[in-house]
Structures are given as C-alpha cells and as structure tokens.
Amino acid sequence: MTGGARSPSSAPAARLIEELRRAGIADERVLAAMARVPRDQFVPAAFVDHAWDNVALPIGHGQTISQPLVVALMTAALEVTDRHKVLEIGTGSGYQTAVLAPLCRRVFTIERHQALLHEANKRFAALRLGNVTSRFGDGTKGWPEPAPFDRILVTAAAAKLPVTLQELLAPGGVMVAPVGAEKGKQMLVRVRRTDEGFKTEDLVAVRFVPLVEGLPRNPRRPVEAAST
Ligand code: SAH
User: Fold this and answer.
1) pTM for the full model?
2) Do the domain assignments include residue 183?
3) Structural domains in the chain (count)
4) Whether residue 219 has pLDDT greater than 80
5) What is the catalytic activity of this protein (predicted)?
C-alpha cells in the first residue's frame, strides 16, 4: 500500500496491534496490514478519537465499521494470499477492503448503500488502492462477471448460509461469513470448496448487522460501477 497510510509505528496503531496480538491474532501479515490502514480515515469525524480503539463504530445508515478484532479474525480465517481474487460483500466504510487489498491480488466489493459506497470509494482513491473494484448493488446476488473467486468475505450476517455466494468459489476456494439472526446468536462460518463438495466449519461467535436482500427504498439514481 502506498500514500496516505500512517506509519505502522504510530502509537495508537501500535497499541491496537498489541491488543490484537494479546487477543490471539498471530498472523503477522494481517497484523502488518492492519497497522498500515489508517482506521481514523474510515470513521465519521465525531468518532475519530476512538478510531484506534478495539470497538465497532457507527458509520451512518444504521451500519457499523467492524471491530478491529473481528476484522483481524475474519481476514486471518480467509487464508488470503497475493495470488487471490477476493469478493467482499458489504463495503461499508471500506476498512475491511483496505485491509484485504495489500494481502491479495484484487478485491471486488459490493455495497447496497450508495452514500456509504461513495465515501468508501473516496478513501480507496486517497489511499491509492489500485487493486480495488467496487460496485453499488445487492451482494446477495453475488458478482457473477468476475467469478469465480478464490476467496469470499461476507461482512453482514445472513440468517442462513448464503449458498448462492459459495457457488461463486473457485475449486479450493474459501468463504468466510457470519450466519445467524439479527438479534440472535451469530456464528462466523468458514466454507471450503473441495473436490468432494462444500465443507463447513464454525469458527467463533460474532455480532454483525444483517445482510439485507434488495436495495434500500428510494435509492438515488444508481452510479456507474467505480473502479479505483
Ligand atoms: N466491511 C465493512 C463492514 C460494514 S457493516 C467495514 O469494514 O466497514 C456491513 C455492510 O454490509 C453495511 O454497509 C451494509 O449496508 C452492507 N450490506 C448489507 N446487506 C448487503 C447486501 N445485500 N449487499 C451489499 N451490501 C450489504
């Protein structure tokens, strides 16, 4: 990653990374990526003092930027390498996308709130994330054109495992997704596409905003798919 990123040695970033390490995150590539992504640029101005705290924060439209520990867990669980083409469902602030970008070949990310996507695109441009392609739309339908994907990360909780999305995985591909009701218990689930079919494992209990089918009512006129 180039330009705009804080030095990993900035004190609040270093404190957060230490906290993640203590919480059991051992993947150094993930920790290095998170140290470099300036989370303070992904939160609303009112919350900037808490940008480096290990908490989820509101980003408007009833949505949140995920807790750093959860971002770290999900990114590590995805086992992503620089050869991988990744699909993310739920761009939100763009923070998770920015953590993935330096760890993989290309990230495709979809968001159903146009205003959030617009802000996220500005951040991707400011940080010169050249391997991010974003789109406004309903992620539950996937993104068939660039499929198959080596990795799929869903950052909003579906009531049931989103099987439409797992069909977009390449052989050997991995999908990580929170599954469960909005107010009920949710589990982070990892799905592997093997020669024998899909293998599913439960990872850790989580709490996410819901994956919502369709687009918000009265959306503004759709914008062209943006590519940075
Ligand atoms: N990855 C984000 C997390 C945002 S919260 C971040 O790091 O900030 C989850 C996001 O998923 C919200 O922005 C929400 O609007 C979006 N979302 C929910 N259902 C969706 C759907 N069907 N298609 C695309 N995005 C969806």
Assistant:
1) 0.92
2) yes
3) 1
4) no
5) [protein]-L-isoaspartate + S-adenosyl-L-methionine = [protein]-L-isoaspartate alpha-methyl ester + S-adenosyl-L-homocysteine
Q: Which domain holds residue 176?
A: 70-216
Selection from 210, 227, 228, 224 nearest residue 114 by Cα: 224
Q: Does some domain include residue 54?
A: no
C-alpha closest to that of 161 among 192, 200, 130: 200
Task: Give the integer Cα–Cα distance in Å for 78 and 203.
Answer: 11
Query: 80 in ligand 1 pocket by Cβ < 6 Å?
Result: no
At 134, which CATH number? 3.40.50.150
Rounded Cα–Cα distance for residues 18 and 35 (Å): 10
Is 10 a member of any domain? Answer: no
Predicted confidence (pLDDT) per residue in 159-179, tens digit: 999 999 999 999 999 999 999
**pLDDT tens digit string along 36-75?**
999 999 999 999 999 999 999 999 999 999 999 999 999 9
Our mutation pick for probing the ligand 1 site, out of 70, 107, 111, counting the most ligand atoms within 8 A of Cβ, is: 111
Q: Which residues pair with 178 in a beta bridge?
A: 188
